Amino acid sequence: MFKRLITICALAVMFAGCGVLAENITPEEQALIQQRLDARSFRIEAEFMLPRRGGQQALNSPYGVTVNDGIIISTLPYVGQAWDLPYGGGKALNFQAPIDTYMEERTASKRTILIGTDNEEDYVTYRIEIFNNGKVDMSVRSQHREQINYRGRLDPDKDPSKKDN
User: For the domain that residue 70 is a member of, what is the CATH number?
Assistant: First the structure.
């Protein structure tokens, strides 16, 4: 009985989190999101961090990922197990580096983007699911740290190709 109650509660929390994806945006905002993605020039604002151990943590600083001109700028906090790191912990997920691989898959409701980059300390892979409403689920893997996930949104008003943003 207790296991069934735990399972029901877990499913309720999971589906409540999915309700966020139903948020409506204007057709103009949706077109701007698609335009940013087509140009490979976008900014993702991370709003939640989901480490492998522990619970979801809200982020209130301007954390995120910017993709522009074949470069990725990652400013993400990291919590988790790491191994084989430089003294002091290294760059973690705070770096700027050229994009090695960029692959994209489209469906009617979202785009899935895979980005691989070498930040001189580690090879990092970002799996980014961007839904039509601008909501984002992102999974980050590296060779020397365990996987971590983030949730956030793509801000259609921030154009990384323009320096005044």
Answer: 2.40.128.410
Sign, Cα dihedral of 26, 30, 32, 33 = positive
Q: Model's pTM, two decimal places?
A: 0.81
Give 49-58 contacts, CB < 8 A, sequence gap 24+. Answer: 49/76, 49/77, 49/79, 49/148, 49/149, 49/150, 50/148, 50/149, 50/150, 50/151, 51/79, 51/80, 51/148, 51/149, 52/80, 52/81, 52/146, 52/147, 52/148, 53/80, 53/81, 54/79
Q: How many residues does the chain have?
A: 165
**Residues 52-83: tens digit of each pLDDT:** 888 899 998 889 999 999 999 999 998 888 78
Domain count for the chain, please give it: 1
In a domain, 134, yes or no: yes
